[in-house]
Amino acid sequence: MSDLHHFTAIELRDSFIRGEYTAVQIAEFFLKRIEKHNQQLGAFLSILGPRMLLKAEQLDHKRSQNKPLGKLAGIPIAIKDNMHIAGEITSCASKFLRNYKAPFDATAIRLMEQEDALFTGKTNLDEFAMGSSNENSAFFPSHNPWDLTCSPGGSSGGSAAAVAARLSLIATGSDTGGSIRQPAGFCGIVGFKPTYGRVSRYGLVAYGSSLDQIGPFATSVADIALTMETIGRHCPHDSTSLDLPPESYPLPTNLHEIRIGVPTKFLENLKPDAKANFDHSLNVMRSLGAKITEIDLDILKYSIAVYYIVATAEASTNLARFDGIRYGVRSKEAKNLEEIYEFSRQDGFGKEVKKRIMLGTYVLSAGFQDAFYKKAQKVRTLIIEAFEKAFADCDAVAMPIAPSAAFPLKAFNDPIEMYLQDIFSIPANLAGLPAISVPSGFDSNKMPLGLQLIGPQMCDVPVIQYAHAFEHATQFSRKIPPLFNGNPP
Ligand code: GLN
To answer: Which atom number of ligand 1 is nearest to the Cα of residue 131?
Structure first.
């Protein structure tokens, strides 16, 4: 009972099914770990203890009656707090929604629940998923399990910290410009952003609707595949959901005949640690049979500029519904309708969110739309075309997930400097491509680094397969941060 946190999700599920542990034992074990460690990590905004124990009892009952058990039976799963679990708070780490109870389950939640997942709690994030460090949470920042003075990344930093510290074995995130992959890289775990449309966005609080995608965090690529088998389904409630049959993921351990494209020029300014690690990853892939080819994706240098126009424009529209009337805590000082809107939004939103709403409103305003929004859309199309051209010569593109390992909390005074850290994660969102971050080793400060593999649209299965071969050869994702490796719990 003392080492359940050393299991992968699949290992834990199988030992539950074999009867080695009860679901109640598993639930109690992880709830105790959360209780013990959440204070220092700030990973969870709410813990779903009673609900989790109830579900665990039901699972034990189901097993005792030899009824079929779901694919996620007994796996503790954390949920980013911008996804709805019916009857629970969805705060989006915003004061504005601190009392908001979700009226329905997100589709991804319903699918996981049907497969007998045990939801542990709702995880911390940058307010409305806007940020790269978790410092924009209205409540408290989350910390990196490898070094508590560092950021776990963002915006899904709470989910990444929870899985890296083994307070849950899987977590969900949402990825609009890197919010799953960058925190996964910073925390030394695996994170996957599916093809746009592969996972339903129904029940996810929208940020940039043409970019948002739900995906999993886990401590192994096989657990990512398992989660995708569960949540990668067509959903009639999301008009952008792909109408494709569910996929399964055989996981090979070599890369024979696979062509990996490297955008050498785009990567020319990599710092020494990141470069050495990336070169090592390329050698690993070579040794597994991959052919490394050079590709031209120099246009990706415009990604950040395009993203901060498209994402903020969409955010300004999406966040209009938080007005103290339809959604959000209403200001008590307001005396008329106008003031309700004004004061509620003033009190409810944090600084970064306000800034993005204003930026987005500006780029959409009459007179500026052509200069900013339309131009950004045109460059977005060029980026999509550049990827299509690159994929004529390769099966996947490789690059680091971020320019460096996790940075210290409060490292950036200038927000633009922090925006620039997303240069490698944003392109996959602009082009709607599946992309994974898989642990690739450590820098000279012993902080984890991540390798990113990006595939053509709909190639979620191959991307996950390549990452699996890489993980099989390297095994970095099995490393547990020393602070959280102790027994028990
Ligand atoms: N870091 C990016 C931003 O600040 C991406 C966030 C995300 O993917 N939700 O918007």
So the answer is: 4
For ligand 1, what atom is nearest to the CA of residue 132?
A: 1
Atom of ligand 1 nearest to the CA of 156: 9
Sheet strand arrangement including 435-442:
44-47, 118-123, 76-80, 170-174, 214-218, 190-193, 435-442, 448-454, 396-400, 259-262, 291-294
Residue 164: band (very low, low, confident or very high) from pLDDT cuts 50, 70, 90: very high
Question: Would you give the distance in Å from CA 428 to the centre of its chain?
Answer: 13
Distance (Å, rounded) from C-alpha 183 to C-alpha 26?
26
pLDDT tens digits along 334-389? 999 999 999 999 999 999 999 999 999 999 998 899 999 999 999 999 999 999 99
DSSP summary character for residue 302: G
* Contact residues of ligand 1, CB 6 A cut-off: 129-132, 155, 175-179, 207, 311, 422
pLDDT (0 to 100) of residue 37 = 97
Give me ligand 1 centre to Cα 9, in Å. Answer: 27
Catalytic member of 94, 133, 155, 241: 155
365 flagged as catalytic: no
Q: Which CATH class is domain 4-259+393-484?
A: alpha beta
Question: If we measure between CA atoms, which residue out of 167, 169, 217 comes closest to residue 489?
Answer: 167
- 354 among known catalytic residues: no
132 is known as an active-site residue: no
Nearest CA to ligand 1 atom 5: 177
**354 burial class (0-12, 13-18, 19+ CB within 10 angstroms)?**
middle
Q: Whose CA is nearest to atom 4 of ligand 1?
A: 131
Report the distance separating Cα 119 and Cα 355, nearest Å: 33
Q: What pTM, to 2 d.p., does this model score?
A: 0.98
Ligand 1 atom 10, closest CA: 130
Substitution candidate for ligand 1 out of 80, 81, 82, 126 with most atoms within 8 A of CB:
126
Q: pLDDT band at residue 1, thresholds of 50, 70 and 90?
A: low
- 202-234 pLDDT per residue, tens: 999 999 999 999 999 999 999 999 999 999 999
CA distances from 412 to 42, 125, 180, 306 (A): 20, 18, 21, 22
How is the chain split into domains, by residue range? 4-259+393-484, 300-379
